[in-house]
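writing this on my phone so excuse typos. first protein, seq and then structure
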Amino acid sequence: MQIILKPTYSCNFRCKYCYLSNETKQQSRLFDVDFAKQIVTQLKLLMQEKPRRKLTIIWHGGEPMLWGIENYRAIFAYMQQELAGYEVQNSMQTNLSLVNDEWIDLFLQYNVRVGFSLDGTHEIHDQQRVGAHGEPTFERILANYYKCREQGMRIGCIVVGSKKHIGHIPELYHFMRNEGINFKFNPLFCSGEAQNNILNYGITPEEYAQMAIELFDLWFYDNQGQITESNFVEIASNIATGKPTGCMFSKNCQDNFLAIAPTGDVMPCGRFCDNDLLQYSYGNLHKETLAEILPRIRKSETYNRAEYITQSGCKDCHWYNICHGGCLHDGFLASGDFRHKTFLCPAYKRIFAHIEHRLQENGMNK
């Protein structure tokens, strides 16, 4: 079971492609720590009802560190006590700007995996990931990454591929390689603030595929490199085994993934956590328990999306068993409903075929 907890939408950055609008980030409320404890208790009850021993909680935002270090100290200690005997992994996706020695000690104490965002070299990064007043953020993030790494933290990176990266993939790869940063290259999608900047930063599926293929070859043939691009590892594994991993390509992500918004609404995933999308809430934890809310999921359009995809032409696709129509939210963005596959379908077909070919060339996929 994987749960995305968003204690706040507030953020001290104003990234040009953020999936949240700046208005949402300015009007955000915060979790109360007692409310967060209630969520943990309810998760424990669910895990007791079913033979589940593993729970992954991803703290997300906005900027999740704005919830405050004392709140995290309280909730991590509570989880350690309340969920003793279960395999629990806490992760946090942060912009890394607020990290200091105190935070690092906390992450190490509770074995928190940290992910951050850095869009490659400062020439590109500082165009699209800016502070609340438009100031550059590259130097601060890189310095905090060094600080985390020096203390032995497990830390990985998301690079959001935008129009600014077209023609600059080699510079991106060699920068990440030289800095020793494990990363994943995700495409920008048109939601929230990105809608206001799509002409300057948006990319087509074809442009994403071309950049991803170029990046894969740089990584795949780099015999001296020591970094990992996790999207490529996942796709190669999926091709080799014929079975998908993670939420993006699972047959039905709603079997194992949920998100809880700052409002207390239980949402299909973190990407739906926006004040403009609350009509897709399964229910609100300030009014009901998780046990009362969860049975609604199987009756929802989001859950039935898997069946719509199965009945569509997707099932005849060579890649169906490792794709299943792609991300639920991507399909929603393209169509406004839950009956459609990802808008990145043509990109994934090219990327999958390219990676399969490279694996076959090197005797890694028979």
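second protein below, same order as before
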Amino acid sequence: MNLYDQISEDIKAAMKARDKVRLETLRNIKKVFIEAKTAPGANDTLNDDDALKIIQKLAKQGREAAAIYTEKKRKDLADVEMAQVAVIESYLPQQLSEEEIEAVVKDIIAQTGATSMKEMGKVMGIANKQMSGKADGRTISAIVKRLLS
């Protein structure tokens, strides 16, 4: 079962369970999936890799919104946003720890022979492909910068 079908099934389960937060979040995810499927050039298909990228983007947006709400002293809205982020993140693969990311980056640096910040783009391209969906790009970037400088 692909991710799109899984979300559809989970919407039904959330309706039966009367889980309002989960239902609202899953409907939002499905809406974005449908928009991606019907976008020009999408051929009315959505593979799991694209779906995961969408889910990552939604989780990141939710965390950023919660941070803004917290900054503006709106804990009530931040809590709602974080509850939705928790639902969204349940569909993401297990995230790598910083130590695991660092080990992968060190391996990539050894493979490419990168020695300076000038080669950061090459290392980042490979790292982002290898850890797609498993690590945040900002974290990867920070580790690559630290290891190359």
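DSSP finds seven helices and no strands in the chain. thats all i got for now
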